[in-house]
Amino acid sequence: MTIAAKVIFFDIGATLATPVPGDPPGSITAFALLSWAVPMLEAAQRSGARLGIISNTGDLPGSAITPLLDNAGIKKFFEKDLLIYSKDVGHSKATPEIFRLAAARAGYADEKDACLFVGEDAAERQTAVTAGLRSAAPPVFDFAKAD
After folding, report:
1. Which of 64, 83, 120, 130 has its CA 20 to 30 A from that of 57?
2. pLDDT higher than threshold 70 for residue 147
3. Mean pLDDT, range 2-28, rounded to an integer
4. Can you tell me whether residue 118 is helix, strand or coil?
5. Mean pLDDT across the chain, nearest whole number?
6. Are 114 and 6 in contact (CB under 8 A)?
7. What is the rounded distance in angstroms from the CA atom of residue 1 to the CA atom of residue 144?
8. Which domains are delineated in the chain?
9. 18-35 pLDDT, tens per residue?
10. Omega of the bond prior to 24 within 30 degrees of 0, cis?
11. Over residues 105-113, mean pLDDT
C-alpha cells in the first residue's frame, strides 16, 4: 500500500533504532539502527515529505538525544523544528497533545491528516489517529510523492 503524506514523523525506539543503555540507569549512550531504518528514511525522503521525530524520552532532553541521532547517521534526515521529544514538550505519546503539537509545528494544525506517524506501538499509533494524524507500522518503504 502506498502512503502519501506531507510530513512523516517517526518514533525512534523499535521503529528506527534500539537505544543502547548507559550508566547511570535511564541514560542512553547510542542508538543501534534497525536494518530497515536508513532504507525507510531514504524512501520517505524521496517522497518529498518533510521528516520529523516524535519520541518518548523519559528524563532525557532533546539536547541528549539529537547528538545520538547524529552519531547514528540519521539526524540529517530530519528538520530541526520537527524533533519532538516528550521531555522537552511535557507530553508523551500516551496523549494526543504531543501529536497535535507536532502537526502544529509542521504547519498543519488545521490539516493534521497531512501528517503520518510511523511507530511500532499500536496504542501510540491509535493515539496519533485520535489526534487526527494518520499512522503506519514500520517498516514502510512505499511512500507516494508529497504534494
Report:
1. 130
2. no
3. 95
4. strand
5. 96
6. yes
7. 10
8. 7-132 (3.40.50.1000)
9. 999 999 998 999 999 999
10. yes
11. 96
Inform me whether the pLDDT recorded for 146 exceeds 80: no
Tens of pLDDT, residues 61-102? 999 999 999 999 999 999 999 999 999 999 999 999 999 999
CA distance 99 to 35: 26
Helix (H, G, I), strand (E, B) or coil at 100: helix
CA gap 56, 19 in Å, rounded: 12
The Cα–Cα gap between 135 and 55 comes to: 14
Surface-to-core class of residue 141, CB atoms within 10 Å of its CB (0-12 exposed, 13-18 middle, 19+ buried):
middle
Cα 70 from Cα 76, distance rounded (Å): 7
123 sits in which H/E element: helix 122-130
Q: For residue 139, report the phi and psi dihedrals to the nearest 5 degrees.
A: -85, 150
The span from the CA of 97 to the CA of 60, in Å, is 19
At residue 1 the predicted structure's pLDDT band, cuts being 50, 70 and 90, is: low
- Count Cβ atoms within 10 A of the Cβ of residue 2 and give its class: 0-12 exposed, 13-18 middle, 19 or more buried: exposed
| One-letter amino acid of 101 | L
Please identify which residue in the block is written with the cell numbers 518518548. Answer: 56
